[in-house]
Amino acid sequence: MPDKFAPTNTxxxxxxxxxxxxxxxxxxxVTPPVxxxxxxxxxxxxxxxxxxxxADGSPIAPYGFKNGTNIPRKTIPGRTKDDLRAxxxxxxxxxxxxxxxxxxxxxxxAGLGMSxxxxxxxxxxxxxYAHVFKQAMPGMVHAWNEAAQQNAQVRRQVERLAGxxxxxxxxxxxxxxxxxxAGCLELAKSGKTPEDKAQRKEIRRQYGExxxxxxxxxxxxxxGDLQAEAA
Length: 231
Hints:
Shape: rod-shaped
Radius of gyration: 58 Å
Largest sheet: none
Helix content: 55-70%
Strand content: under 5%
């Protein structure tokens, strides 16, 4: 009885197997291509000239020489401490400013003290205090001068008050102006008693006449100068 599960068409099956086997045999018979090995680097014979030598025999040094030797570097060198030290900018040391002994400020302090004393004497309310100040001034001048010699902060303050470039001239201007202010205030007083009032009034009249006389002298002098120039 025939097998109902057997293939009904077997034509060509053997041919396919034979063709596959023939292809495998052909591949196995093919010789694989020969790939040559990479060329080996030449062995360095001269350690003192790893990159070769010039025509004159000197070693070729494309990366320079090792520090302190004539042996060329094999690779690009890194930055060593010696290189960094050589590349560092050369800065000249700052000049040390010589500091001499501070000068004597006695004359400046004495001049300032005399200006203060004169200012105190010019005004009646401060005259008693001016006397006390003048008696103590020599000791203060000595003490402040010694302090300025020893302490920089005190020295700066002394120079600001009495040294070169100080504002001591302001005190001089004030002292020269103080008598004017005191005299004007004295003339402006009206007096408490009738006799005092009359006396002050007479003084103001005399001062007024003196001012007029000074004005006439000034005008006459100016006119005389103009006439002399015209002649």
